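Thread: Modeling a multi-component assembly for a lab meeting

Hi all, long-time lurker, first post. My supervisor asked me to bring a structural picture of a complex we are working on to next week's group meeting, and I have zero experience with this. I have the sequence lines for every component (694 residues in total). Could someone generate the structure of the whole assembly? Inputs are pasted exactly as I received them:
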Amino acid sequence: MTLPTPLEIRPVHGIGDVTAGDDLAELITRAAPWLADGDVLVVTSKIVSKAEGRLVEVPADGPEREEARQRVLAGETARVVARRGNTTIVQTRHGFVMAAAGIDASNVDKTHLVLLPEDPDASARALRAGFAARGLDVAVIVSDTMGRAWRNGLTDVALGAAGISALLDHRGRFDPYGNELSLTQMAVVDELSAAGELVKGKTDRVPVAVVRGYSHDGGVGDGPGVSILIRDAESDMFGLGTSEARAAGLHSAATLADTPPAVPPLAAPVDPVAVRAARDAVAGLLTAVVRETPGGLRLTPSSDTPAALIRLGTEAHRLRAALAAEGVPTGLAIDDSGTTLTFGVPT
Amino acid sequence: MTLPTPLEIRPVHGIGDVTAGDDLAELITRAAPWLADGDVLVVTSKIVSKAEGRLVEVPADGPEREEARQRVLAGETARVVARRGNTTIVQTRHGFVMAAAGIDASNVDKTHLVLLPEDPDASARALRAGFAARGLDVAVIVSDTMGRAWRNGLTDVALGAAGISALLDHRGRFDPYGNELSLTQMAVVDELSAAGELVKGKTDRVPVAVVRGYSHDGGVGDGPGVSILIRDAESDMFGLGTSEARAAGLHSAATLADTPPAVPPLAAPVDPVAVRAARDAVAGLLTAVVRETPGGLRLTPSSDTPAALIRLGTEAHRLRAALAAEGVPTGLAIDDSGTTLTFGVPT
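Re: Modeling a multi-component assembly
Sure thing. I ran the full set together rather than chain by chain. Output:
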């Protein structure tokens, strides 16, 4: 039995602090003179961001810091995907779905936040060109740490790549039993990022790992990068958090137009402004008179025609669904002069 | 600059076909006599399932095969998470969220389907014990290929583990800048599984990879395994597919009880039985007379009291929301003797 050639994953020590304007290819080649053609470099996005000056100054502490962080987050957010407690999952301008848009306050002084690189694929291409200028033909992956749905714990995945195909496509190939491998596209750049993280750690300043001996499609040039891994919200079955989607469904029920409806936007955040938001959501659809009562709302018809009474009923249900979408369950009481909605306690 | 000690990932060749009752520890040690204490073995779940006889016989082709596959899938499914076209994402009895419950028809003859191991953590423990009986102190990870939300491409993750902690917890540690690492728990068994896949491939019968040189918490004994990575549906922000959650929201709007409601189950599948399902969903809540009309439904009140007219209106909206939850948008027309719902074309 011959010893199989192993894949090697080497940490790169001694890169030290990276600041805006630094030449990463220079810093890395100096710290890893043993780099060789065919190596795959997994570079933590943080040092790429630092070298590119993707830092914003924020107060070191206090409520001002959190306010500043929220402003920065809003600027990096294309859309909010899910929110629970202090956790906000957003889709970034790049299309990545990440907690807090990948904005990071670790491994940087307390007066700065680190943003993701502007264009991680471009960062990987530029870095790869920097190595090429030094006579090194390597692939470059820019990686970051992300959470995921359904499983606890974080893993490193790729934000950008150059000189390697993000996907290894087995489709059309056959297994030894003659079964076609119909649905097997492996996200190898994510697996390489995960492998690299195993030698990096979070605090010991090893921002680069080198994977040696991985045979990949070297003929791709820079290639399309990681952008091909991004699934657009329409084709993603989990483009919106469950509770957000459920609220959006209730919201759309509450705002059904008399003509066939289109899907409405995400419902507004619940409580303490929930009742106000619910009323605003259906205000344009109501002909009934709505009056605040202790612990509820009273609806009376605009006129006493049978049609006006029937419409009052539809409007009462619209308003109930709107309140439910805002996390405010209600009880309903109907009498001959109108309806009373009684607020319940959110379950 | 001294050469850092690399992490090594070695493929294990020559294991060959695995059948029910095979001793995997024996097959692996024979194929990899170079195994050493401290190695982390990443074992593809497929050969674990085969050794444990987790195969079901199915017709080789035809509609009977698909019917059989659906029966098997139902048996492995704890709940359906999302469905689109031919893709069904379910939570398995183990708690894993996977397409088709991880049931696999590849790398097996056409008359069988391979199920996930009954208890992958137990499988990993048993396999580790098998190596221990041969004087080898190794960690064992049982891995499989999974898709994920938001990103194209598949990666290998861990289904079971023994002799290694699934999570590496950085919480409470501080980075060089004095920032506490508050939310950093790395799912190292998933990263090790991904690293192992890089040397396995899908068709070349390399079902085991060995990671050498990874320093992990060896003092854990077997440890809790991968079960600690499973996030229960309540704490998962993506416990349900977006469209399923939106439909559930519409459904709950349609079925609001007069008393504060509880969250209803997932709405029934839409079309062609959509209208029937929508009517059934609210049947118990309707006092109005509902009549089929060309392209719609006509609702008339059970009596002519003002309260009955108002209630008719609430019921008309319940029914509209129920139809919307089933993918059937409606238009609404109100007159003095009732309401007419006109079916629209799903957008």
